[in-house]
Amino acid sequence: MRLVILAICLLALAGCQTTSPRDTLGGPILLIPDVGQGHGAALVEGDRAVLIDVGPADQDAMDVALRAQGVREIELVVLTHPDIDHVGGLDGLTLPMRGILRGAMSREDSGRVLSRCPIYPNGCRRALPLQEIHVLADLMLRILGPSDTSVAAVTNANSLVVEFRRDGRCLFVASGDLDTLGELALLDRLEPTEVVQLGHHGSRSSSHLRWLGAMMPRYVVVQAGLDNSYGHPAAEALARAEAVGAKILLPVGNCLRVAFLPRAVVLD
Length: 268
Fold this sequence. Notes:
single chain; Metallo-beta-lactamase, Chain A; 7-stranded mixed β-sheet; 7 helices; 15 strands; 19% helix; disordered N terminus
C-alpha cells in the first residue's frame, strides 16, 4: 500500500517554486508543503495568503513555499489545534503577519502562541462556531466546528474545522486532529468539497466514511512525516478515502500546489 501511495505522490507533486500561467486566471492557489509530521497549508490569492496551521517547530517549509509563490503578507493564520506539530512552525515564518484566529488553548499553549499577539496588527481572536470571515480577494472562511464548545480540557475534540468557499463552491476543508465522534456531530454542516485534508494526519480514528461521504472530495491530502513512528497515514483511513472516489495526495519531500480554476481543479 505504501509503495502505491508514494507512486501517486510522485506523479501529483508540484514544486511550488514558480508561478504558472493558470495563476493569471483569477483562482486561488492551495499550497501544501512537506512540513514533516505536522499540519500546515495555505490559500493564496495574489501576494497575500491565509494559513491553516503552520507545521512543527524547526522547519521553514511554509515560509519557503509562500515566498516562492510570490506572497508578501500573511493576512491570517488559523490554528486548528494547539499541539506543537500544528503551531510550532510560527517561528519559521518571516513574512509580515496580520493576525491569528485560534481555537481552544491551554495555559501552556497560550503562553507559547498568544504572547505574540501584541506584535500583530489584528492581534489574536478566538474562533466562534459558524463564524464567517471574508479573506483575501473573494474567499469566505467559515468555522464549521467543533460542535461542542463546552469541553473543558483541550483535546483533539476541540480542533477547529474550517471551510473555504468561493462563489458558492466549497474549495477546501481542514479539521485539525478532530476524531470521528466530532466529525459525526458535524455531518449536517458539510457539502461537496474539492479538497479535504485528512484529519489527524490520516489517523485511523479520524476521517470517518460518513464524514468523507458527505463531502465527496476530488482529492484528499495527507500530511504525515515519511516513515513516522505513529504509522500515519493508517491503511483504514486511506481505504475510506478511496471508497468515496477521492485521489490521495501526500506532499513528501516537495510541495503540492492546487489551482482552483472557475470550473476545474488543477494540480500544477
